[in-house]
Amino acid sequence: MYEGKNNPQSTFEFDSKAILPFLKRIYAQQGGSADTIDPQMWESIARTIRSAVVEGEGEASFDPSHQFKHALRHSADVFAAFKVHRLQRDITERLTDEKGNLRSFSQWRELVMPIASHQCHQWLRTEYDTAVLRARNACEWQQFEAERDVLPNLKWLPSTSPTPGADHQLFWNTVLPIDHPFWASHRPGDRWNCKCQLIATAEPATSEPTSGKHDHPHSGLENNTGKDGHLFSDKHPYFPSSCGSCSLFQAKAPITARAKYLFLNRKKDCYNCPYANQMVQQAESREEYTTPTVYGKRLKVSIKADKKDLADNLRVSKAIVSSEPNTEVKIRPHVRIKGVKNPELDINERIADNKRIQSEKGVKAAFQSGIEQGCKTIVLDLDAVVKKLRTKKLSKFIGYRHADFENGTIEVCYVVYKNKAVRIDKNNYKRAYEVLEAFKKEVE
Hints:
This protein is an alpha/beta fold.
């Protein structure tokens, strides 16, 4: 289905151990019903696609509105739902043999494991990499719109890929007004793994390049994410071709709604479909998370969270969401595997850990431990033990971690003090002392 090479520097992550339990659940339910999706697999896929959104937003030079970011994350959730729905359908069709007899689990697993593995690795990796690029491009399109009075034209830059395809080369260096019809049909990111970019410019417009059918966007990439907030279009093969062919719609919609779509031939709108949204909400509600505070969905706690550290984790989580209105935190379930130390938090879909350091010297161990756990975000909890914010000492030891910030091993470090949090990242770690001094004056 997909073409092109994956991005070798991608931070794509998917736990392959999730596949076998997923197959066991589907087999036990004999495939389940047409209007449900497996919540655990949906959460794994959705987490991966949401992470791509976060990564793409982080690469952009423009920070769009919270409403636009919410639209991107919602589209990631809906896309994940239809992906899992399609995967369930594909493997459920193989539960029985040619005579209609139920296959044994071992026979069925051998038959469908390649399908599940391909969907959750090769295809998901391509979807992740493309979602990163499209989320970044979408944020930049929002900037183009905001600055069009000064920079009215857009210029198509050549691909940064070491082996660019020929399909976009005829568009390179094209300069046209932002509202030119050409941009409705062709844009960087409308091919899988496309690494072309647009920039806003005051350069004079060029002529519109001619194109043929072979230059059309790939299926699922026809839309402008910067305008509609959808990572992929609902023409992607995971989505039904129409409401009439959608098993979800046929199972959930009342007969009057089905009649309207049949006789009025209404256009499908999968991202705003109430039945698709209901499917996502049902899967999300079975994640086994609670929302114990006034912060609602911005702070979730797994019912399987480690009870021993729950009070501390809840305290720092409240500090972070109260200090950063656009941040979401989940306290993760505690997985009891010998020799494995669980990261305790998800912060904006990035794995994070709460480090209750004994002194400023503990910053080194905190960063090293977090990196070993696969964390991109570290929380330094001063309220647990240290109880003081010595800005000069703390900024010195944070500064020692300059390589972690520069190479992206660690993206964010939160310092929690007096139930408030301040963010240190690549953009301000060199000014950590001033940032911490201002934060200290604010909270004390």
